[in-house]
Amino acid sequence: MNSGQALETLHRIDREYRCLEKAAAVLQWDQETCLPAGGVEERAEQLALLEGIAHERLIDPETGRLLAELGSVPENPRGDRALPEPERDFLRVTRRRYERAVKLPADFVSAAARAGGLSQAAWAGARRANDFASFLPHLETMIDFARKKAAYWGFGNGAGSLYDGLLDIYEPGMSASETGGLFAALRERLVPLLEKISLCPPPDTSFLKQDFPVEQQAAFSQRLMDYLGFDRGRGRLDTSAHPFTTSLGSDDIRITTRYFPDNILSGLFSVIHESGHAFYEMGFPPELRGSCLADGASMAVHESQSRFLENVIGRSRSFWTGCFPLLREYFPRQLKSAGAENFYRAVNEVKPSPVRVDADEISYSLHIIFRFELEKRLIGGELAPEKLPPVWNDYTREYLGLESETVADGVLQDIHWSMGSFGYFPSYALGNLYGLQILKKLKQDIPAYESAVAEGKFSLLYDWLGENIYRWGCRLEPGELLSKITGEKLSVNPFLEYIEGKYSELYGF
Question: For 393, how many CA atoms within 13 A lie in the half-sphere containing its CB?
């Protein structure tokens, strides 16, 4: 078989695997949005079977034989010079995925999927009931699966820590040590800034402390998606216990949010955040769709897109200049005494919250840093899962100066650990860094982008992101992508300069 035929066969196998992967995503989306409580156990069995089948298709001996036939892919130059560049990238990504998957026993994959389905349902129930004890056995199970997965890949035995192996799932090439160094530099400047702001007069947020009916919030969310340019012919918005985005196909991107009548900002900014993920997924070019290359460069790069849209755009003065009049149409009574400038200052209030998704831009990264520390200790066996609630509170006191009143708003607030997604949390703070480093280049290329945002014209922004980020999918490693855009390595400085500049102006120091 020549290289062309071998590649064609690999593409067919990849398409089949992707179809199975998307089918599983449909079941997972349904479980998070509308599955009756009685269907949880059977859904776990369905997911276990489907993910087991997908795994078997991925590790089929034919895949290994074809990869061997096409030869190894050296790190530099990237791939076989005889192949077109996109095919070299396809081969590299396929090989990485295969070499990871083939080390995991099929029964382990099915068992992990089954446990994950039950764990997510148990987490949702435990969070509603404010009951950590009922979730604890599932948490212990998911930690065990995470450790075993990393061990199967060779981590924890001279090739980095078990946690390095889990972090590598979401941020290829990034170690816990490197991540910890970036986070230490962040914390060193964010904590004093937080303390400095705490001494300043806060903005007026009294007009937000009213009842904002959920039905009107949901109606505005649909209007907001249209305002942002979300293609509702290719996606939709639903509600779930924890906001998320999932791709069920190239033209079927689902986002979710949640609404609280006494907190309009939670649902509103979740919609903007998840739309950032969706625009990335919708932006992959036709030649990548349906293949393993139609994915983000890493979860941190993915989070850079959602955090960028949520904060740099969505919490900007320019954005609310154009969008506030629309919001006031839906809430004329609640917002009759407020203007766009009042709203801009209110949504940028710096006030540490025990809930990560409601955190301001400064304290948000501190949320992530202490979760990173907790994950390392859990996976390394230094922290027993049953000790999490009091230790969690120790961290929130140390990092944020407050304590969670309930486990629902404390250790149970996030879905990630119930899914076994240890190593994911750092992506959020790393995404902040990627996003602000990319913003420097965006400003150079489009100096007038803020004026376009103020007018509600986002196509200029999306076109630039499409050309510089979306079109690459995961053809480039995250460091390569950043270097291609900015010519630099990942740094904390652009993010800190943005934060310090924005909030010194807002708080007058």
Answer: 10
Distance CA 155, CA 116 (A): 22
Enzyme catalytic residues: 274
Exposed, middle or buried by CB within 10 Å (0-12, 13-18, 19+), for 172?
middle
Contacts with 155 (C-beta within 8 Å, 6 or more apart), sequence order = 161, 162, 164, 165, 168
Q: How far apart are CA 269 and CA 312, in angstroms?
A: 12
Per-residue confidence (pLDDT) for residue 76, from 0 to 100: 34
Q: Along the chain (509 residues), what's the average pLDDT of each consecutive run of 10 residues?
A: 87 96 97 95 95 94 92 46 84 95 95 95 96 98 98 87 96 94 97 95 96 98 98 97 95 97 96 98 96 97 98 98 98 96 97 92 97 97 97 95 91 96 97 96 95 96 98 97 97 97 95
CA angle (382, 410, 376) in 5-degree steps: 25
Write a three-state SS string for 268-293.
Answer: HHHHHHHHHHHHHHHCCCCCCCCCCC
The residues that bridge with 236 in the sheet, in sequence order, are: 254
- Which residues, 6 or more positions from 196, have their beta carbon under 8 angstroms from its beta carbon? 509
Question: Whose structure tokens read 């010079």?
Answer: 81
What DSSP element (H or E) covers 462? helix 459-468
331: Cβ–Cβ under 8 A, 6 or more apart, which residues?
212, 216, 220, 264
Q: What share of the chain is helix, strand, coil (3-state, %, to 5)?
A: 65, 5, 30
3-state SS, residue 238: strand
127, with CB counted inside 10 A (0-12, 13-18, 19+), is buried
Q: What is the pLDDT of residue 271?
A: 98
pLDDT for position 82: 67
27: enclosing H helix or E strand: helix 3-33
Q: Which residue has the tokens 């390095």?
A: 164
Task: Specify the 3-state DSSP secondary structure of 261.
Answer: coil
Q: What is the pLDDT of residue 29?
A: 97
Angle of CA points 227, 231, 234, to nearest 5°: 155
Environment class of residue 106 by beta-carbon count within 10 Å: exposed (0-12), middle (13-18) or buried (19+)?
A: middle
- The per-residue pLDDT for 159 is 72
Q: Scan for tokens 């212990």, then name that residue.
A: 140
* CA pair distance 366, 363, nearest whole angstrom: 5
Q: Which two tokens stand for residue 333?
A: 């009574």
The structure tokens listed for 408 are 């629902």
Q: What pLDDT sits at residue 405?
A: 87
List domains and CATH numbers for the chain. Answer: 3-153 (no CATH), 176-507 (1.10.1370.30)
d(CA 187, CA 256): 31
